[in-house]
Design a protein that fits this description.
Layout (H helix, E strand, L loop, with lengths): L2 E3 L6 E2 L6 E8 L2 E8 L4 E4 L11 E3 L5 E7 L4 E8 L6 E2 L7 E8 L5 E7 L2 E7 L5 E7 L4 E5 L5 E6 L2 E6 L4 E6 L6 E2 L8 E7 L2 E8 L3 E10 L3 E5 L5 E7 L2 E8 L4 E5 L5 E8 L3 E7 L6 E4 L18 E10 L2 E10 L6 E7 L13 H8 L3 E6 L8 H4 L8 H16 L3 E11 L1 H12 L6 E5 L5 H7 L2 H11 L7 H6 L13 E6 L7 H13 L5 E5 L8 H19 L19
Parallel strand pairs: 31-32, 31-33, 33-34, 34-35, 35-36
Antiparallel strand pairs: 1-3, 2-3, 3-4, 4-5, 6-7, 7-8, 8-9, 8-10, 10-11, 11-12, 12-13, 14-15, 15-16, 16-17, 18-19, 19-20, 20-21, 22-23, 23-24, 24-25, 26-27, 27-28, 29-30, 30-32
Length: 585
């Protein structure tokens, strides 16, 4: 197997044995797990699953064992353990049925906690150092296990936008209402200290919780937009803020009330972590540059690629459009061959609690090579612009986001940047949902639409989806389809199928548990019954695939479809620079 580090991922390093780690590597046509000897700079394969690949693993704090998730195409599976030095795998939780992964946390004494989601809901299993397993928590709906304290005495779980702290018996020690997001316990010994980024008024702050002092807020250290935070080995906090499509890093010392900015090139930090020895690891990218792992020590797993920027005559600009709910930010990429107007694709981001960023996306590169301009719009509900924009669902779900796309379209046409007769949409997951909703509710604006793994019928997707997604929909809509049927119908693409005019490409994953394939197929059948001829690509994937062939099939299908319908240049089966890579989700 030829092995190299997969883009967009950080290695995991054992807290108490920093010369031992693991990482996700590319093995030919898929991702697999490798053990990393940091001191020697060598690696060995841990998993080998042709036709599936593996991309979830961790090393225990002492560096003795590697844990990896043995899942199927739908994401259901079980944790397995392998000695870090090599040897046979064994089940980590014997007798526990396969389920969706909802978190893994390990303590220095060998205790491990695992979060799982199945058709019954969310559960947490505790594994003792001796290997005994018992159920700590069961609950309907979704949830996620976040962390286990260093001494193994407390666990943090996230459920229904709130945080619960449990002891090892499963008893609730504290319930912390949101909006806040647990980021883990301080790794040092002593009183457990839980870190919690939180929303407050017009921004975000860091909060901490201890059993003795309860919840405390570092109000002196505010951030404008969403943050992710991790503990550093020395007790400081590394904070990544994604604002207006770009990232910044800060080092925060809560005890000294100090905050220092860390230098980061303009672009996006996909992930960052301070490893033992104050070795900063981060994955950085921008629109032209594929994700690359950078470390302050210079030590990286063997086979780590560092690809140069893609050489294409493209120009990236930031545009702001006054829309129905305020200023809308768009990352606009256009061919550098004249003033326009160009055939234009709105590449609609998923989530919904996500944002488009100055980050590498092979779809943008392929469309640019075909002569398209690409508009990546951070519509209402996107992260990166403060709580008010993130929480702007008071006007409903779906339709306000489509209104923002329409406002940006009008602006681009008025400025002579987009050809009004050649404008299409493309999106994955929630972006695919908005693509279909826009095609049905504003049919006069779009000449083509490609929806990959979309929600096509909001009610059917709710009923067939996972407990976690049903919980998300219930929060977004304000209830279930049985409680507020009109609200779901108003936001469902199936409601507007009669109005669709443009050609449609649909991609369904046969094992997709997030956006089930049956409702996508029924949408295609509804279009055919009305005289349309949608293109339907059915794959054996889940909501996404670890296999490069699957990724390439979807990308080339989307770009070829849009090129044929909107008049872009044909790529002739070649890729710019001989490489494109996977989408950054």
């Amino acid at each position: 197997m030829q092995l190299r580090v997969a883009p967009g991922t950080l290695p995991s390093i054992a807290e108490l044995a920093p010369d031992r780690g693991c990482f996700v590597g590319s093995a030919g046509d898929r991702c697999e797990i490798l053990a990393w000897d940091v001191a020697r700079g060598t690696a060995r394969p841990v998993t080998d699953r042709p036709g599936l690949g593996t991309d979830v693993a961790d090393v225990d704090p002492g560096g003795e064992f590697l844990w990896w998730f043995d899942d199927d195409r739908a994401g259901r599976g079980s944790w397995r353990i392998q000695p870090w030095a090599g040897g046979a795998d064994r089940p980590a939780l014997p007798g526990v049925p396969p389920a969706l992964n909802a978190g893994l946390a390990m303590a220095a004494d060998g205790t491990a906690a695992v979060g799982l989601i199945d058709e019954h809901g969310f559960s947490v299993r505790l594994r003792s150092p001796g290997g005994e397993v018992h159920t700590l928590l069961t609950a309907s709906g979704g949830g996620e296990l976040v962390d286990l304290s260093a001494d193994g005495s407390l666990l943090a779980v996230e459920q229904e936008s709130a945080v619960r702290v449990l002891d090892r018996s499963g008893a609730t020690v504290a319930e912390l209402p949101g909006p806040l997001w647990p980021a883990g316990f301080r790794p040092a010994a002593g009183t457990p200290l839980l870190l919690l980024p939180a929303e407050c008024d017009d921004g975000y702050v860091l909060r901490t919780w201890t059993p003795e002092e309860g919840l405390r807020s570092a109000d002196w250290c505010r951030f404008e937009s969403e943050i992710s935070a991790t503990w550093c080995p020395d007790g400081q906090v590394l904070v990544r803020e994604d604002s207006r499509g770009r990232s910044s890093l800060s080092l925060v010392d809560l005890a000294r009330r100090q905050r220092a900015a860390l230098p980061v090139p303009t672009g996006t930090v996909l992930d960052a972590r301070m490893q033992p020895g104050n070795d900063l690891h981060l994955v950085w990218t921008d629109t032209r540059t594929p994700p690359v792992l950078r470390t302050s020590s210079g030590r990286r797993p063997p086979g780590t690629p560092e690809l140069p920027p893609v050489e294409l005559p493209l120009t990236l600009s930031d545009r702001w459009t006054l829309g129905p709910g305020g200023q809308i930010h768009t990352l606009f990429t256009a061919p550098d061959d004249g003033p326009g107007p160009w055939p234009t694709v709105f590449l609609v981001h998923g989530g919904p609690l996500q944002q488009d960023r100055d980050a590498y996306d092979p779809t943008v590169i392929l469309l640019g090579a075909a002569g398209f301009a690409v508009a990546r719009v951070n519509y209402r509900g996107s992260t990166g612009y403060g709580p008010a924009w993130r929480n702007a669902y008071d006007a409903g779900v779906g339709l306000p986001q489509v209104a923002d796309l329409a406002a940006v379209r009008a602006d681009l046409v008025q400025e002579g940047l987009a050809d009004p007769a050649r404008i299409g949409l493309a999106g994955w997951s929630w972006g695919g949902y908005l693509t279909l909703l826009a095609l049905g509710t504003r049919p006069e604006l779009w000449q083509a639409g490609a929806a990959v793994y979309p929600i096509a019928d909001s009610v059917a997707a709710f009923r067939a989806g996972t407990p976690a997604l049903r919980s998300l929909d219930t929060r977004l809509f304000g209830g279930t389809p049985d409680e507020i049927p009109d609200r779901y119908a108003q936001a469902s693409p199936m409601t507007y199928v009669d109005a669709v005019r443009a050609p449609v490409l649909l991609v369904a994953g046969g094992n997709d548990v997030k956006c089930p394939p049956e409702q996508v197929v029924r949408y295609a059948q509804a279009l055919r019954a009305r005289g349309h001829a949608p293109e339907l690509l059915e794959l054996r994937t889940g909501h996404e695939s670890r296999l490069m062939d699957d990724q390439a099939t979807v990308l080339t299908s989307v770009v070829s479809f849009l090129g044929a319908r909107l008049g872009g240049a044909q790529l002739g089966g070649t890729q710019p620079g001989g490489r494109v890579g996977a989408r950054v989700m």
